[in-house]
């Protein structure tokens, strides 16, 4: 019997002898230092690039957070102002006139006090709305001994009074002050509405 042997191709890589590189010690040390310097520089550049990238990301995040906070602050502020608007308008329309009526006579007395000595014998005419006259007369009669003449003037508001002296006249106009406060409130909220509409 004859044996036939099957011969297969060999895929093994034959070892090729590596070439021997010979460097003198000075060249070897120089090549080693150059490789170290190149690796060190590459690592340093990567670290700086990573730090710059992180700083840029943090700045962008901070900027976005500040924009979000600003937007939230303005939303909350606008909401609070919108909620306060009816309260302030009602106070100016309802509370201030009542306070003005109650404080009108003491304000008149305060205006007359410094004049008491110089005008002790000269009559002072107190001109006011007929509805406010009883309260003014009652308080002024109790607080001053000046010669006062009371004169009703229906065209005046309930919180308006004129003090007429011999040659001069002083106006106390709490209605005007209330109107100015109401106008200031309306102007403020109209300005806020326009600013919100225009960003």
Question: Quick recap of the structure?
Answer:
With 199 residues, this protein is α+β, with helices and mostly antiparallel strands. It has helices spanning 25-112, 133-143, 174-198, and strands at residues 124-128, 148-152, 160-164, 169-173.
Explain how this protein is built.
By secondary structure, this protein is an alpha+beta fold. It contains 3 helices and 4 strands, in the order αβαβββα. It has a 4-stranded mixed beta sheet. Helix 2 (133-143) links the parallel strand 1 (124-128) and strand 2 (148-152). Helix 1 (25-112) packs antiparallel against helix 3. The chain is rod-shaped and about 155 Å long. The N and C termini lie far apart (104 Å).
Question: Any chance you could write out the topology, listing elements then pairs?
Answer:
Blueprint: H1 25-112, E1 124-128, H2 133-143, E2 148-152, E3 160-164, E4 169-173, H3 174-198
Parallel strand pairs: 1-2
Antiparallel strand pairs: 1-3, 3-4
Q: How confident is the prediction overall: mean pLDDT?
A: 79
Strand % is 5-15%
Rg, rounded, reads: 47 Å
**Count of helices?**
3
Largest beta-sheet details: 4 strands, mixed
Estimate percent helicity.
55-70%
Strand order of the largest sheet: 2-1-3-4
Shape: rod-shaped
């Amino acid at each position: 019997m004859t044996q036939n042997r099957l011969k297969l191709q060999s895929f093994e890589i034959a070892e090729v002898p590596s070439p021997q590189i010979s460097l003198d010690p000075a060249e070897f040390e120089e090549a080693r230092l150059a490789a170290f310097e190149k690796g060190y520089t590459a690592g340093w550049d990567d670290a700086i690039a990573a730090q710059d990238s992180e700083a840029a990301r943090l700045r962008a995040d901070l900027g976005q957070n500040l924009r979000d906070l600003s937007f939230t602050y303005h939303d909350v502020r606008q909401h609070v102002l919108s909620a306060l608007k009816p309260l302030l308008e009602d106070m100016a329309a309802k509370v201030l006139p009542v306070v003005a009526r109650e404080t009108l006579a003491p304000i008149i007395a305060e205006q007359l006090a410094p004049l008491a000595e110089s005008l002790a014998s000269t009559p002072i005419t107190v001109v006011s709305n007929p509805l406010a006259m009883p309260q003014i007369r009652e308080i002024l009669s109790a607080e001053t001994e000046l010669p006062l003449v009371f004169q009703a003037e229906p065209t005046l508001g309930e919180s308006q009074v004129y003090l007429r002296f011999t040659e001069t006249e002083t106006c106390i106009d709490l209605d005007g002050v209330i109107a100015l406060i109401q106008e200031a409130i309306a102007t403020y909220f109209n300005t806020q509405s326009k600013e919100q509409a225009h960003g």
